[in-house]
Design goal:
alpha+beta
């Protein structure tokens, strides 16, 4: 039986790169901070399963940069939580 992957995002959701722990000085964390600053907020334009092993990915349009990028869903977070707008 195949496991079904459940996406936490919908097309048109507003997202941003997850902000790593401030104490994390790894190259990955530094790259995440740089991307968050350079790209800003994005809009999910499509969802797909990609990679090996297969994992959920989203295509995000970044208006600030005028570009789209594919990224693992696990590296992104919702820019606004409708259930808790003050979060």
């Amino acid at each position: 039986m195949q496991n079904e992957l459940i996406s936490k995002f919908q097309v048109h959701d507003l997202v941003i790169r997850k902000n790593p722990d401030p104490d994390d000085g790894s190259m990955t964390a530094n790259a995440a901070r740089e991307q968050r600053e350079r790209l800003g907020y994005g809009i999910v334009v499509s969802k797909q399963i990609a990679g090996n092993p297969a994992h959920l990915c989203i295509t995000v349009l970044y208006p600030k940069a005028g570009k789209t990028y594919e990224i693992a869903e696990s590296l992104m977070e919702s820019a606004g939580d409708p259930a808790n707008p003050w979060k």
